[in-house]
TrEMBL record:
It comes from the Eukaryota. GO terms for molecular function: folic acid binding; transferase activity. It comes from Homo sapiens (Human). Residues 9-114 form the Formiminotransferase N-terminal subdomain domain. InterPro entries: Formiminotransferase_N, Formiminotransferase_N_sf, FormiminoTrfase_cat_dom_sf, FTCD. This is Formiminotransferase cyclodeaminase N-terminal like. It holds the Pfam family FTCD_N.
Amino acid sequence: MSSSRVGLRLAACLLNVSEAGRKYIVENIAKAALLDKNGKKHPQVSVLNIFSDQDYKRSVITIATSVDKLGSSVLAACLEAFQAIDMEVQEGIHPCLGAVDLIPIYPLSGVTVE
């Protein structure tokens, strides 16, 4: 995804989920961010990185896309996380608020924090 196009407004979300041990669950959450409601890949959405910490039982999925697509992509990933992560059995040294702990969004190009 090139940011050289005039007027392109990019942002990233570092989605924090309470799962690290079951790689397939984390990958399914990341895949959910990439798909539209019809199950087809969003061409403008990218998962840039997945970092999983086994001690904390937590993963951070970095999702980048246009500001217009970010909300629906992050929501799809969150819904997958809520369905796939059983907080009754989740353990880790990091305190958890839920299946999704944190949803920070960062401006990348053509957009400010406001």
